[in-house]
Amino acid sequence: MSALAAFHFERPVWLLLLLPALALWYLERRRSDENERWRGVIDPALLRHLLVGRERSSGVTPNALLLMAWILGTIAVAGPAWEVEPSPFADAKPPAMIVLKVTPSMATADLAPTRLDRARQKLSDLLGLREGAATGLIAYSGASHLVLPPTPDGSVVLDLAKALSPEIMPKEGDDLADAVALADAILAGHRRGGSILVMADAAAGEQIDRLAGTTLTHPATILALLPPELDPGRLEDAERALRADLVATTVDRSDVETVARRLDRAGRIVDVAGEGQHWKEAGYWLTPLLALLTLLWFRRGWVIA
């Protein structure tokens, strides 16, 4: 009874197609009715005696089956539904944009082998923990560059990160504010929520002022690529300016696990299109019946009949 009470059509406007179907079927029935043709000419009392052997056929005609197929097809397209199911994206991990600093300071060897290499190692661990989640990559130094928009293929993200080096960056410097703004804009364009992860070893003073004037629509996390004994300095100022979480690099995977939990929790939204629950359409169950009816039109002489 609950299913019956919940029964409805997702696109009920398609049911209007039933009106022309019924009208065409009725007109065809009248046109093929022998009695109707002569009723205006011959006295009805004599008509039934004169049209011997011309009674209306009571068998199933192609027109009747065509009407049935039309009705079934219209109901299927209208989207009959009575059961709610979760969206296939409801439990998916939200996307993340990785903002990676690629400057000569990242070639420092105090995080063996270098800070940039350690960033790649941490990125590899993070992609493993968030397998299947869409991840994008932005590289920045004196300018910001989109390397890859969010993709669920983590191996591509890692391969491109390995190809980055300070030597190929076209401009030296620190463009953290623009890099974060670019990441935020890309996530906004996908409309699936998400978070920003900054992987850097420092932040320039002028960037802190610019970050303070930046309003992000997605949460940010900063992974400080520095040895534990070094003061994060300006990264703490960047943390406050972005209202982000600052995570220190560790020798084990605890830092990556902390970042993964942050990305999965803070970047999730359930009110965007495609999230939450939706009605499960059952119109496809009518497809076999439509196929069987269609097969009759391949029968020799069927349409002529």
According to DSSP, the number of beta strands is: 9
What overall form do the CA principal axes indicate? rod-shaped
Task: Indicate the CATH topology of the largest domain.
Answer: Rossmann fold
- Order of secondary-structure elements: HEHHHHEEHEEHHEHEHEHEH
User: What structural class do the secondary elements suggest?
Assistant: alpha/beta
- What is the residue-averaged pLDDT? 85
Q: Please give the order of strands in the largest beta sheet.
A: 5-4-3-6-7-8
In CATH, the homologous superfamily of the largest domain goes by the name von Willebrand factor, type A domain
Radius of gyration: 34 Å
Q: Mind describing the biggest β-sheet?
A: 6 strands, mixed
* CATH class category name of the largest domain: Alpha Beta
Oligomer: single chain
Number of domains: 2
Share of residues in helices: 40-55%
Span of the ends, CA to CA: 43 Å
Question: Percent of residues in beta strands?
Answer: 15-25%
Pfam families: VWA_2
InterPro entries: UPF0353/GerABKA_families (IPR050768), VWF_A (IPR002035), vWFA_dom_sf (IPR036465)
Protein name: VWFA domain-containing protein
Task: Tell me what the structure shows.
The chain has 305 residues and is of the alpha/beta class. It folds into 2 domains: 2-87 and 278-298, no CATH class; 96-266, 3-Layer(aba) Sandwich (Rossmann fold), CATH 3.40.50. It has 12 helices and 9 strands. The strands form 2 sheets. Strands 5-4-3-6-7-8 form a 6-stranded mixed sheet, with helices on both faces. It has a 3-stranded antiparallel sheet with strand order 1-2-9. Helix 2 runs antiparallel to helix 5, helix 6 runs antiparallel to helix 7 and helix 9 (205-212) runs parallel beside helix 10 (234-242). The longest helix has 17 residues, at 62-78. The two termini are 43 Å apart. Residues 270-275 have low confidence and may be disordered. This is VWFA domain-containing protein. Residues 97-202 form the VWFA domain. It holds the Pfam family VWA_2. InterPro entries: UPF0353/GerABKA_families (IPR050768), VWF_A (IPR002035), vWFA_dom_sf (IPR036465). It comes from Methylobacterium oxalidis.
